[in-house]
Task: structure prediction
Amino acid sequence: MSAMLEPRARAISRNRRVAGMDPDKRHQILEGANAVFAARGFDAASMNDIAAAANVSKGTLYVYFEDKEHLFVALIEREREKQKQGMYAALADEPSLTLALTNFGTGLVRLLTGPFALSAHRIVLGVAERMPDLGREFYERGPMQGAQHLAAFLEQRVAAGELAIGDVALAAAQFVDLCQSTLMRPRLFNAVRTPPGEDEVAHVVGEAVATFMARYGKAAR
Amino acid sequence: MSAMLEPRARAISRNRRVAGMDPDKRHQILEGANAVFAARGFDAASMNDIAAAANVSKGTLYVYFEDKEHLFVALIEREREKQKQGMYAALADEPSLTLALTNFGTGLVRLLTGPFALSAHRIVLGVAERMPDLGREFYERGPMQGAQHLAAFLEQRVAAGELAIGDVALAAAQFVDLCQSTLMRPRLFNAVRTPPGEDEVAHVVGEAVATFMARYGKAAR
DNA sequence: AAATAATCGAACCGATCGGTTCGATTTGCT
DNA sequence: AGCAAATCGAACCGATCGGTTCGATTATTT
Result:
């Protein structure tokens, strides 16, 4: 108490003298959970495995997370925040319409076909029937929010006279789906075990932009 | 022929004098399995539940199916055969290109957003990491085969001068994905708990056809 | 009616699960 | 150095799982 708020500030930023509050340990646990969930799915991932993978005792595990579902939700939320930043940057920064779409689509596909988004999708879909709230939240805060961002962007370009779109929300969803054609589905089903190559992504996204512009574009063509 | 192979015919079609061979009982079991798998997913569906739902003793269950995975595979295969017929009819029968696409797309969406395809997708995706063969087979004999059928159809129309397509396989995948925009994803995540209405399907498929034709159509526009 | 075989039903098996408990050990603060 | 708290680790709990076994029951065949 040398000053007034010394102890509190230390307890938060530097100490781990509060049970279940050490951010490093928390991170460590989430890393282990990530590995085990990705490899085995939700049901088949045991808390024993996770504790072992994280090099943490099972007791400590339950100090940091109250049960398996909360641990999984925390993992998803952390990863979402980690990957969301910069996803929508392409839409705000790039003046060229087709280039903005291309960059956005490329980033989207890279993210979706990556190992984390893939396993997260599999797990959430696998339990969506039993845990509808988890499925709904995952959808609303992920894919749906992405489509809405894109829709808002398209709206601007419509107002600017660059696009002519009747149903903007549908058009946004169409573009998102066009970008994934051929790439996401076989990956989800594990029929293709490696992420698509740079050239493959460029081709599919390019064709997505072309199709999208053929329908909704006003200037060129 | 009534004379000579009577007994054999009876043994197959009428009798149940061979263990695990009664088609009615097999059907009964699959019905129960369908209900339980759909409601709980693969891992959480217990063989006890399935036996109870099918009004069959657990012992009998294991006479007809050697384990849970085989039971699930048999269920999927039965349902696939049941629903595949007539799916590709629209492509063969209809002379009008846009009408053929519309009919195909409508049937596709109806099937995919229906309760069985939905739960089958969730389950297979949920275990795709642990059971890669199941995921790959499901994909290859379902979605992939559908896309190939459509690609073959598109190829004909390209040869007939009605379409101009560079990458036919990609174009087919694009159309399939366009048809599902807005409809399939929220349903998969259980964010929308009822199948889309007739009008909604018509709108989305109509827009899918419009976008597809804007890019690849030759005649109009 | 007697025989024969499929099915039932209920107990049982070993394994594993999520989650808890608690004494031993480590860690960081004073 | 000495203390207090976080963590460890291993045993433990009740429940449930997939799968098996076996005597009782039911239905079909002769």
Summary: Chain B touches chain A through 53 residues (CB under 8 Å). Chain B has a mean pLDDT of 90.
